[in-house]
Amino acid sequence: MEFKRSQFQLLLDRMNEARMFIQVLAGPRQVGKSTLIGQVLEANPLPHYLYDADGVNENDTDWIRRVWESARAQMDTLGQTEAILVIDEVQKIKQWSEIVKREWDADTRRRRQLKVFLLGSSRLMLRKGLTESLAGRFELTRLGHWLPREMEEAFGWNLDDWIYYGGYPGSAHLINDGSRWRRYIKQSLVAPAIEKDVILTSNIYKPALMKQLFELGCSYSAEILSLTKALGQLQDAGNVTTLSAYLEILNQCNLLAGLQKYSNDEARRYQSIPKYQVYNNALLTAYRGSTFEKDRTDPQKWGRWVESAVGAYLMDNAEEADYQVYYWRERSDEVDYILVRRGEVLALEVKSGRRGMNSGLPRFCENFHPRRALVVGTDGVPFEEFFRIRPEELF
Predict the structure, then answer these.
(1) d(CA 187, CA 189)
(2) Side by side, which strands form the sheet with 48-52?
(3) Which of 275, 304, 309, 299 has its CA nearest to residue 288?
(4) At what angle do helices 281-288 and 207-219 cross, to 10 degrees?
(5) What span, in angstroms and rounded, lies between the C-alpha atoms of 99 and 91?
(6) What pLDDT sits at residue 124?
(7) How confident is the model at residue 270 (pLDDT cuts 50, 70, 90)?
(8) Residues 55, 30: contact at Cβ < 8 Å?
(9) What are the tens digits of pLDDT across the range 236-256?
(10) How far apart (Å, rounded) are the C-alpha atoms in residues 45 and 83?
């Protein structure tokens, strides 16, 4: 039986209901947005019209109007009272949100029952268009990276597979050939994400520096490294301010984050040394991994992979669940992840057997009095259970 993600029924219900809002399905590249919408369309009896903006010239601002008008014309010719219009990678077209607003409002005035679904992978560009032009007209459904239970059900993976290979469904059948898997991640996932979702949609004056920062940050996932030291490892000239701006753009595109140190003083947070964190562990493995067998049997290395996997899981849910992710360190005392939600603080220490419990968690509790402090892994919440819990439920 074909695997369907949990958002399938939600999208099918919204496709079947009366036309009310533009439906937006957003998520990183290669997490199955197009596949999911195809499954929903197949299960829905209404006629549909599907268009992909990925290969369209970004300056062709009339393209959206043309495909929209084409759907209207077919509805009229075929006598259809209701239909579905799907536009994939809509954010690639400049001024897309203004054009969508104009066409949607025109259909609303004429009471045309053309239900619109927009798909997009660039969180940065989608968010800007939705908030500036389409406020009050849309509902957003987020599609995140695949969870361990999804990879198990769809591909027979175990938790160690997910921790190491990260859970991109398109790469699932390649893990027995490490070189081929790594090429797929770099060429089919990373390259399009950097070149299309980042460089073409942001003011990147040094693309080579951006790529080097991304690769370095991925290889340092779950580690703390100052931007000054990072700059010393990069070949292209730049400065700390540029690197900080690029790191934030990578974060907005669901690729790589630079977590700030938790502090009651907001200014100290922004001035802190970043802790690098990938959104999917496939990125750590692609740029830092050796082989699964070697890395899995090295306790220190595997500990890093496990910690990074926990961080990736927390980051992937942060925006939807409305919490922020930090780390904390004071001299030798450290807490791996600090979650803040509506003024409440949660401290998480990841323990995979690679080290004894340090004094970081009790010291943090003494200084900041979090609502809850948890150990994830050895002598705490088992990893299998943790990755089945929605992080917001921990508060």
Answers:
(1) 6
(2) 48-52, 82-88, 113-120, 22-26, 138-142
(3) 304
(4) 100
(5) 11
(6) 62
(7) low
(8) no
(9) 667 888 899 999 989 988 899
(10) 9
